[in-house]
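Predicting holo structure, guanosine-5'-monophosphate bound.
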Amino acid sequence: MTRGLLIVISGASGTGKGTVCKKILSDLPAVAYSISATTRAPRPGEVDGREYYFLSVEEFKAWIADEKFLEYAQVYGNFYGTPLNKIEERLNRGEDILLEIDVQGALNVKRKCPEGIYIFLLPPSLEELKRRIEGRGTETPESLSRRLKNAVAEIKVGPEYDYVVVNDTIENAAEKIKTILSAERLKVARNTDKFNLGEDFE
Ligand code: ADP
Ligand code: 5GP
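Done. Tokens:
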């Protein structure tokens, strides 16, 4: 059984990670989304248990104490974490799992899971990033300027990733990510079982 892919996507807030990930998940129904936990308030339209598990700070700290996270980080004053949720067993069953997490979390996961696929999504420009965050209409002026400042710091971590994809259009970005996944599935290291001569090569 070929192990599933652990796919990690990061990028500055407002780049379009959520939008591009939704497109990939709808195009590739076999890929499962890792629903993070957060202490931030839900945005309009966000549903508990779909976009995030929305927890109180006390609940989040209890999950940390109970070692329920693969990683967690503080982003913009709120906690965010990836629930372990038997990720290892799911990968061993051959399921692909997509994590959309910040750069601190991604680098922590990379240390623990170097075989993962680390993809950095870039906006076409900082100007366009600002337009996208403003267009989303979910941030106060202070929170917008904090996200823009932080974007520059986050983008500087991009070279630690394996792949970089510019989110010019949702379709282009999603196609590029699907191409990365197709190539990764063909890596020799993921297919050593096919070299058992005498078996078929499917
Ligand atoms: P993130 O998850 O990275 O914070 P979102 O997915 O919430 O970003 O996208 C931020 C805003 O930018 C949303 O209003 C979204 O509709 C818009 N957006 C995302 N991708 C694109 C794109 N390729 N072109 C134009 N607008 C985009
Ligand atoms: P937002 O509040 O815009 O949904 O997310 C803010 C930031 O938190 C984004 O960079 C997003 O990728 C990151 N994030 C979401 N879930 C997690 C998680 O489980 N762990 C970490 N480390 N970051 C996360």
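The mean pLDDT is 94.
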